[in-house]
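> tool_call: predict_assembly(chains=two)
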Amino acid sequence: MMNFINLLMAGLATGAIYALVAIGFTLLWQTSQTINFAQGEFVMVPAFFVLAALNVGMPLPLALLVGLALSMLVLGVLFKRLLVDPMLRHGVLPLAICTMALSIFLKETVKEVYSAEASPFPSFLPGGNLNLLGATISIQSISIFVFAICAVVALQTFLTKTSTGRQMQATAQNPYVAKLLGVPVERMIMYTFLINAALVALASFLISPVYLAKFSAGETLGLAAFIAAIVGGFNQIRGAIVGGLLLGVIDNLAAAYISTQYRGAVPLFLLIAVILFRPQGLMGRAEERTV
Amino acid sequence: MTQPVLSVRDIVAGYGEMTILNGTTFDVMPGTITTVIGPNGAGKSTVFKTIFGMLKARTGSIHFKGTDITNAPPRKLLALGLCYVPQGRNIFPELNVLSNLELGGIAASADVNIPQRIEAVLERFPVLRRKGQQQAGTLSGGEQKLLEIARSLLLDPQLMLIDEPSIGLSPMMVQEVFSIIKELRAKGVSVLMIEQNARSALEISDDGLVLELGRTRMQDRAQTLLNDPRVGQLFLGGVIEEKSA
């Protein structure tokens, strides 16, 4: 039983990280029709920004801030300006293919420039174990979960309670009408890219201490976030949250109770089931589209 | 002589290679309802998009109260007192009704008291106050149209462009929308309307405008157009004789 609770906690912790990445993924899709297949690599890269900053002698808090700033610049502003803006004119699919190329480019660059080996990454959250009634619970799991959920709540509050947040939602739900009302649509889309960059950086800082920083770390993460977004409903932030948490828990329980070998297959079964029986996702709303 | 509130001169515009408007010219007089009629593809909605800066006019000019607004962005037009209610559903379905309404005030200049304006609009549309916290997507089609109209009234416009307001609405809701439009005129707001239900629209209008192939074919008093057999045959179903008999 205690083992189960530990697995559940670890699952919620990874699930919350998946949720952060999946939220960014759906936000980009909603506001700019960008399907970012490099989203996993976007989680891998910020950890290396921080490692580079640590290598030149910065203290951890400063290095994390530098990592966040660089992520917002490179994975937010430059990504939008240099890749999304020029490619989106040619359609959603050419852009999606370009993001696949970007994912390979980022992986190979990190491998060449930094290292092909996994590097340990310092945690900024409390670690260790908590002894509770004779059972041990990982404090790290709990703190990751709490931190990620706080970030999600902060984002939701921003999106629903502030005027800028509502203008971003308006842009996502109906960009044409948003423009008619005088919403600076282009700026709102840029904000979305910045928020996505911040979310992946945060996910990177949370997950790298657990799974180490490695050039290939984004492969599973990107897939997990993609599945979480689809399972939850592609057009819903709360869908991404539910999808992420569900996937994290199922992933961890499957590894322990079914087989570690089949661990990777379980999320895919979930994906197939959702696409077959509830294509709009668990929380999603069906979208009408003229083709 | 009174100056027109909106004056459109020789507008040429279109999508990509395609030219839709080919020298469209007309005026809207202050405090009147003007209905635009014409066959499908005549460029009715395109005129609205061009006036409202959503489509670039290649040549020609548009003046609003004497100010040149050719190709001005929506934000500027809204601040000047122009508003546009496009065809179809134009709400933000996942935001609640009040947030939808507030977004109508984005373009307001700093001296506009938005909470006060919202209060005034809610006073006129009590159903929106009652359903203020609901997601806008849960409103009925007619209520969504009312929300759009209410939202466009937030900045106290002097000219409203409204495209097919009655489409897809119940007969009762159509009456409601038409009476709102008449009410606006009584307050001195000019309305430029496109309406598939041309007869009903002309009946409440002062002026009418017939567009064909992107050109102004006729501009006259609405009553004159209603009685014109050519217009009757072309756009009103040719039932004028039967009616007067």
